[in-house]
Amino acid sequence: MRIYSLLLCLxxxxxxxxxVFEKTLSNGLKVIVKEDHRAPTVVQQIWYRAGSMDxxxxxxxxxxxxxxxxxxxxxxxxxxxxxxxxxAAGGRENAFTSYDYTAYFQQLHKSQLPxxxxxxxxxxxxxxxxxxxxxxxxxxxMEERRWRTDDDAHSLMEERLMATAYxxxxxxxxxxxxxxxxxxxxxxxxxxxxxxxxxxxxATLVIAGDVDAKQVFALAQKYYGKIPAANPVLRKSSGxxxxxxxxxxxxxxxxxxxxxxxxxxxxxxxxxxNDWQPYALxxxxxxxxxxxxxxxxxxxxxxxxxxxxVGAGYDSTSxxxxxxxxxxTPATGKTVAELEAAIRAQLQAVVKEGVSEEELKRVxxxxxxxxxxxxxxxxxxxxxxxxxxxxxxxxxDLPKMLKKLQAVTAQQVQDxxxxxxxxxxxxVAVLDPQPLDKNKQAKGGAAHxx
Amino acid sequence: MRTKxxxxxxxxxxxxxxxxxPQIQHWQSAxxxxxxxxxxxxxxxxxxxxxxxxGNAYDEADKIGxxxxxxxxxxxxxxxxxxDDIARKMADIGAQLGGSFDADRAAVSLRTLSSAAxxxxxxxxxxxxxxQPLFPEAVLQRNKASMIAGLKEAETKPEHLSGKAFGKxxxxxxxxxxxxxxSDVEKIQRADLENFYRRHYSAKAAVVALMGDVxxxxxxxxxxxxxxxxxxxxxxxxxxxxxxxxxxSEQRIAHPASQSHILLGAPGVARNDPDYxxxxxxxYVLGGGGFVSRLMEEVREKRGMAYSVYSYFMPMQQPGAFxxxxxxxxxxxxxxxxxxxxxxxxxxxxxxxxKELIAAKQNIIGGFPLRIDSNRKILxxxxxxxxxxxxxxxxxxxxVQVEKVTTQQIRDAYQCRIDPNAMATVIVGAPEVK
Lengths: 450, 434
Hints:
The structure holds 2 protein chains of 2 kinds.
Chain A: E1 20-24, E2 30-35, E3 41-48, H1 62-69, H2 81-88, E4 92-97, E5 102-109, H3 113-125, H4 131-150, H5 153-165, H6 179-184, H7 187-197, E6 203-209, H8 213-224, E7 247-254, E8 259-266, H9 277-289, H10 295-303, E9 307-314, E10 322-330, H11 336-353, H12 357-373, H13 378-390, H14 397-406, H15 410-420, E11 426-434
Helix pairs in contact in A: 1-7, 3-8, 9-15, 10-11, 11-15
Chain B: E1 3-7, E2 18-22, E3 25-28, E4 34-39, E5 45-52, H1 66-72, E6 77-78, E7 81-82, H2 83-92, E8 96-101, E9 106-113, H3 116-131, H4 137-154, H5 158-171, H6 182-186, H7 190-200, E10 207-212, H8 216-227, E11 249-253, E12 259-267, H9 276-288, H10 294-301, E13 309-313, E14 321-329, H11 333-350, H12 354-366, H13 368-371, H14 375-387, H15 394-404, H16 407-417, E15 424-428
């Protein structure tokens, strides 16, 4: 579960859109078929436009909890039977929840697509949420939270960073939910969530692989066509007031090395034709971090040896706001403060001197090649379509975005760095490593924020 | 994809009466390297991997860590190319240089567009990286420092602590159980890397895998270009035998994490072992089959005690580990461990039911096309088939081998290999002993 940032890759559009077909059923379910006949396999993905950002105070984590409950049986398919039938058909399956959406998938031999569609359609409106199954599964989710977040210093720090950077927007809350909310969650919360969001008119079905689009549309009509549309839930928009100055936090957790993140509030792509900053920020991330000899690694890891590792990332596409992020681990004997100064110097160099045509060309070459490499994964191509549709954009936007990305100028990169990389929009998080044995003193100095 | 049709004897999966496996071409290059190639022009790209028996099990006892640093520094500079040149020139043409490294195998891989200009430029760099590495002193010092920092960090992580203790408990003094320590890294010298390279990266030992948009003639030239100037000689080094019987052990290691990280297991099976398929199919039922295994059913589905619980065999040159793992909150770690032990004991004593065996075969055989549905996956199979000298028909035979497995074979294989009373057990973040 959980997909945080896809960086540049979501901007990479298909070489040819010709083999993508779409149809909307009368109940509002949008069906998109991507034909790819290289291997006799198929993937089904159903994307619900409901993620953790749609949750309410007190029930954070319910989107993800419901994702788990979707494997716990329907009126006609007992608990565990969904997975057993997919497994017996040679299939692989799973699901994931993000801030923006929840998605379920199966990969199988193409002959087994009808089975997968039948089962997926069934649980999309016949789910049974029993108190017994809920009571066990909420324990599983709490174990998942301990494993992914509570016992992982970097994850814990990222969670606290998001909660600090976003004060109003629901990206404030972790996808997996706060532990207190999980402890107090009830089967009724899960039931409410399911009733609110799981409807054909709030979903996109993506089928990709060795299939015939016409046959897939007929199957979709057969299995999903009779599910009634639901009255759409009034979706209130969430925002984030402008940040009024730099924020800094320290997170103490068991570790040896400090860790450091800078996150600048940044725009999200909304108007594919007229926005320019999101494209320029994507290219900036590539110039700073697109390969081992890109600016940050070359200067900070290889030349100055201030960092063991350093990175930059930006995801232009999401339902909510975005951030331009930098992170790193200082080298032995270097402090977080020295690392921060070194990263800032690199950012200032872009603001003052801009980037070279050669660097832009390199980013473009990588983007172009990645477009080809992407074709080796049918699953990924389906993901891209599902994500675009689920965040309120369209897969038709992908080629336009690619063109705009390739047209970014050096001046735009410099301009966007100057406009976005400002302290007033910045949140800084520092991991202050604690010894495993609490009786020993923490190492002084190295990790303290200033 | 260029393929040939294979008829399949699949009693339980009538719907997959025939499917295609990639047509593997194999030859020995003039350099002595073994080459495995699948020609496929669907996508304008080429994947290459060059494999050597140069994983960390080939380290010398007093020079642990050399194998890893040698592999890590291959792209740190070559004749006429600095480490920045290598990364920058690859990026300029959108090519991706990669690698993989485990106890047996060190590999360097390349993904490039197959258009002549990009392909030739990428292969030229790869050829120099493989055949003329400089192991620059400055990069070595930098990498040693970062490796030492990484090791110290890892010492605070439950996954690392449990894996390390488990490896030692299962493999004893065998190289599969060796762990790189800070003191090992500190003493590594540049000459150690050069010596290791000369000894283990020889043309004769190289296994070249090629997948994608080139002709046989081009593939022959590429394989030769990538290996002709590798070190000569370098007789193959045999790994010592793994002692397959161990005595029961249990280590409880303190850690402040909220969960206990539990591992248990023993030496398992080698790649070429005739019992591999019974063990593999049986493990699908025990803990390999995603959401439907016995361990998953007992620990997660029935009791909600863990998010992840699994078992696997890691087939290696020598028997790799059989391993069961899970994480659960500290307070219930002992209860969960007891449950896992009981599940394993019952499994070994009674084996699998006919119904479970059919379900396992349905999944493994029915899901076979998913194993070879991309160039990347096929490239990985080419490397494994070549490296472990498996038959060229391995992919064709796979489903047949699975289909042949019986409940009796599974019970016999587990009873012969896995003694539930002789498991190495590690609990990191263990609850206080009562």
